[in-house]
Design a protein that fits this description.
Elements lengths: L1 H31 L32 E2 L2 E2 L5 H15 L2 H24 L7 H8 L18 H6 L14 H19 L2 H10 L1 H11 L11 H18 L19 E6 L6 H7 L4 H7 L16 E6 L1
Antiparallel strand pairs: 1-2, 3-4
Length: 313
């Protein structure tokens, strides 16, 4: 019995030594492995600043105006409404960058037409927020840069029919918009109210003024779209006036430009515009691209009438 206990004891001691030997082998192998590479962490000294955060808080201007008329930024709701539109547009970078690029192409001519018609320069931003300077179509059927409805377009001198829709002729549409704006100023005597009326109509603004007995846009309680309208214009104006302040660093070469054109005066009907374009050294795509007011594949012209068609050189 005693011998049996000794055998068991020797066996346990042997197992213990084998376990210790195995453990020592594994520790030696681990010690022989190379240490992992460490990266130095740069210390930001007192003169160094951490990376600028992705979202910044902007300092709004102390004073703003629309067409020379002061914006009452001291009113808390006015300040907040402007701030809302500023952040929305400053952080909708893709849309704002593309508007800035398109403005390089169209603003010089729009600015000239506004000046020639006695309309304040700030109204170019109305066209920008109406359409982004694209020939868009609203759910209600308004079209072009200035978003004219068919009846209003005809009232202010634009031709709208199956072959021709001058709401898409951005220069003629700008002249028509000037006629509307002058007419509205004759009613309101305030360019801010004129701009608001471009969104909700002269009758709509007049009705709100009479109902609420205040003549100032900033004191009127309006529907959400018109309530935001002027502030969208002001936000875009601020971004265009100080682009780098809000993170936009476009240079002149980044802006789109109008290509050089030649004008072709057309005095008789064209049965096939594709054939006509090729005969004039161009093609149907370029014809439509630079003359979007041509709405059909043909052009009918009344006796004594004429159109100027632009073709790129």
């Amino acid at each position: 019995m005693q011998n049996r206990q000794l055998v068991i004891l020797y066996a346990l001691v042997g197992i213990l030594f084998l376990g210790l030997a195995f453990l020592w082998t594994r520790v030696s192998e681990f010690a022989a492995l190379p240490l992992p590479e460490t990266k130095e962490v740069a210390y930001l000294g007192p003169s160094q600043k951490p990376p600028e955060p992705r979202v910044r808080i902007f300092q709004l201007p102390e004073r703003m105006d629309f067409a020379g008329e002061a914006v009452p930024l001291h009113q808390p709701d006015v300040y907040e409404r402007l701030e809302r539109e500023l952040y929305v547009n400053a952080y909708w970078e893709s849309n704002t960058v593309l508007m800035m690029k398109r403005a390089g192409r169209f603003f010089p001519v729009i600015e000239r037409i506004l000046a020639d018609n006695g309309i304040p320069d700030d109204f170019k931003y109305v066209a920008l927020i109406e359409s982004g300077l694209m020939n868009v179509v609203s759910p209600a059927g308004a079209r072009g840069f200035w978003q004219f409805m068919p009846s209003t377009a005809k009232e202010f001198g634009l031709e709208v029919n199956n072959d021709v829709d001058e709401r898409y002729h951005w220069e003629k549409a700008t002249v028509a918009a000037c006629k509307y704006l002058r007419s509205a100023y004759g009613r309101f005597g305030s360019w801010t109210n004129v701009a608001a009326s471009y969104n909700m109509g002269m009758a709509g603004v007049t009705r709100r003024i009479n109902e609420q007995q205040v003549p100032n846009y900033y004191d009127l309680h309006l529907n959400d779209e018109t309530s935001r309208y002027i502030f969208r214009v002001l936000a875009i104006k601020e971004l265009f006036a100080h682009p780098s302040r809000y993170g936009f660093e476009l240079q002149a070469p980044d802006l789109y430009q109008l290509p050089p054109y030649r004008e072709v005066l057309v005095t008789s009907s064209i049965a096939n515009l594709a054939t006509w374009a090729i005969q004039h050294g161009s093609n149907y795509k370029l014809l439509k691209l630079h003359n979007p007011w041509l709405r059909s594949d043909k052009l009918g012209i009344r006796a004594g009438g004429s159109y100027k068609i632009l073709l790129p050189l």
